[in-house]
Amino acid sequence: MNEKQKRSGTEDLPLMQKITALCKRRGFVFQSSEIYGGLKSAYDYGPLGVELKRNLMQDWWRRMVHEREDVVGIDASIIMSPRVWEASGHVAGFSDPLVDCKLCKARFRADKAPAVTPGSEVEYRAHGKTLKGQAERGYVCPECGSPELSEERAFNLMFKTSLGPVDTADNTVYLRPETAQAMFVNFLNVQQTYRLRLPFGIAQQGKSFRNEITVEHFIFRSCEFEQMEMEFFCEPETSDTWLDYWKNERFDWYLSLGANPQKLRLRAHDKDELAHYARGCYDIEYEYPWGWDELEGIANRTDYDLRKHQEHSGKKLTYFDPARIDPATGKPGMHFLPHVIEPAAGATRSVLMFLLDAYDEEPPSEGRQEGRVVLRLHPRLAPIKVAVFPLVKKDEWLTAKSREIVKEFWRGSVNAFYDEKDAIGRRYARQDEAGTPFCITVDGQTRDDDTVTLRFRDDMRQERIPVAEAVDIVVRKLRP
Amino acid sequence: MNEKQKRSGTEDLPLMQKITALCKRRGFVFQSSEIYGGLKSAYDYGPLGVELKRNLMQDWWRRMVHEREDVVGIDASIIMSPRVWEASGHVAGFSDPLVDCKLCKARFRADKAPAVTPGSEVEYRAHGKTLKGQAERGYVCPECGSPELSEERAFNLMFKTSLGPVDTADNTVYLRPETAQAMFVNFLNVQQTYRLRLPFGIAQQGKSFRNEITVEHFIFRSCEFEQMEMEFFCEPETSDTWLDYWKNERFDWYLSLGANPQKLRLRAHDKDELAHYARGCYDIEYEYPWGWDELEGIANRTDYDLRKHQEHSGKKLTYFDPARIDPATGKPGMHFLPHVIEPAAGATRSVLMFLLDAYDEEPPSEGRQEGRVVLRLHPRLAPIKVAVFPLVKKDEWLTAKSREIVKEFWRGSVNAFYDEKDAIGRRYARQDEAGTPFCITVDGQTRDDDTVTLRFRDDMRQERIPVAEAVDIVVRKLRP
User: Fold this and answer.
1) How far is A32 from chain B (nearest CA, A)?
2) Which residues of B touch A164 (CB under 8 A)?
3) Which of A251, B246, B398, B456 is 20 to 30 Å apart from A212, CA to CA?
4) Could you give the CA distance from residue A159 to residue B215 in angstroms, rounded to a whole number?
5) Contact B77/A42, CB-based, under 8 Å?
């Protein structure tokens, strides 16, 4: 039993409640279909949340695809041929052990249930009485504690549906449980059309779906989630070096967006934790309110996936290197299956991590009667980059000037927000909670000397700056 | 029967074949799961295609969300509560009339089958003979022409799946057939958390799924597709004005990205074409190789959707205007359901339109032995904005200098591409086909005076420019 299984996963600290409340109050994340009572573990991103998620995913794409010569992107269908999932092993093996409690009828995952010593005596409550019994297995019902349980049944985590008008076994298809397989299936198409030479990577972002029984921790584990994955194809003998490179590169990405290094760690998988095909694996973990848990996995998958797809499709998926000496012939020119390093990150999960990491409460202090809630998001992640306020709403010159400045930001591709409602202090407070790094206030002095007040979110410092410099000052903070 | 139904939809002009071949050859769009024989009507976007689609969707988001005070974005779950689709009418009514041919066993949509006069005599082929028969209905089998047909059955277009481990009616859920309903369901959440006043819009981009029987025209109509939709909530008496505003605004967006105005038109729906709840509707149509067909619809949906969700959820979805005089009381302060204008665009469909529109072939001319294929994509849409070539691959100074210039572009958030393979002429030709608007060549002279050759895709003009100006010249062309 590894560290993750030992945690019960239910005793979240109050921080999680604060984040959930903030998300709902300010429009980061809503429960899906809320007016209909919600849907288990489904979430909708509101106006601030969608911008945060887009910024995060765009920054990944910039760093992983645009700013590299050796990685290209794809965007594949969510519904792929079912044979893809037969080859990958998801149809046969991608399942959770599911158990029903005979007493209270709870349905739960065996590997998430409270652990006990098999054969030991356990106490549990039923019909208002405390009962005793013997635990046959290494766990009991998480609801009532009973050891009277059904057999374990394997339950496939893939969502099944039918392509075409009639539901038959013939037209069963699945919602992808991961984006990764599309990169393997498209490996040769991409390599050949883009004339790529090893080593190179194929990256993809998008939704994946897992019919999870245990959903937990808000958007941390939900049935519908968003991934950012890359498969890096390399010569077999270089794969250890590339695994090392990618674990560091990926760790550094989180730091580059301002994540607290004290709460991030790289953890090498133990031998017994490794998937059977993996030659090595690291998790990037974050210290969530419930403990250290996964953010991203970086695995050396060897040639396992390409080999499986080659077998199942009957199509040759080898790469040809005209220079490499083929040991079979002793001559240059060799066909072989590359090995693969896979950095697989969760976009949804990263949104939660950055929200938790950025959340701060400041108590009242000298000169400030009220405390404040502030999201110290990196400017590149912040949903709104700059808010522009006319000091007085009724002064038409001020409102027109403020809107002019907003448009200047838009022309510079900066997401600026205009707000004239309530007193300036309340407008600042609203932007602090939204994570907006800069506020600009237009006032009477602006009319005289074309300057405005620039206010910084983190230290609430205020500076007088010329309007003409405003866009440049903000844009500089947004550069990688 | 409208214009669309009269076209057979199969006699695509050769341009479609050219586009399909280019998409495959250059990595814009591949058939999904190709190594497994493909999947009906499912497509994967390759390295160039994913960039084109992202650019298109990003430009929509910029113009519809970022650069407007009155529109905010959301990103909702694909799997929503099934009650959403009961309220919207999709569970009961969202179906195609499906028919089987008794003779050749073809399954087809009644509303897409060849039209005949009911009661007329028709000829068809079976068992090697020409037969005659009487058409009972207004159509015959599209495969063999037979009038011997099964009854029409309604077939629901939504993909059905199960949330949770057991398939029961209780846990049936659907993949959304449109993104729009999420905006209605989240209307009050968004309005209240973002403190919005009428009129305002809620926008969303994302995948939708329809179990279409008739898929056609490459990525034009596929079961999995991507949408860009916005619901604009306004006072009931202003809805006609806003419909007018949005039809023009949306038409203008396509023009702003360089679409040929001769091939675009706005078409008002006839009274008998209108959905029963719609007060008015326009289609933006493009002249595809198979004729004029839909690109986007802009509809006045009145308060139909909010009213339906209010009824089904039992939750009040009215908007409160403190200033509006309530006719019931004669006093300020009124609760009412806003009316809605919906511009609903297809992202997948727009990608096809812009590819078709940009495709050009130039014959050989004086001074050029070979003709060329060129994609005249707007620079904002182009997957690669600028390609940088060292004149000679073996000169390390040239390759290093070229890569330095590429990095300068990256720092300016411009997607630049380095290429050193083959002769310069072939490198230009490759970029012409990819739609890259600018190429820069670094040569011996660069070493002396720090200038490079800038080559323009459209007219193949070449200019000598200082390296220091390169980024600015390109960035200026990318501004809206």
Assistant:
1) 7
2) 40, 211, 213
3) A251
4) 23
5) yes
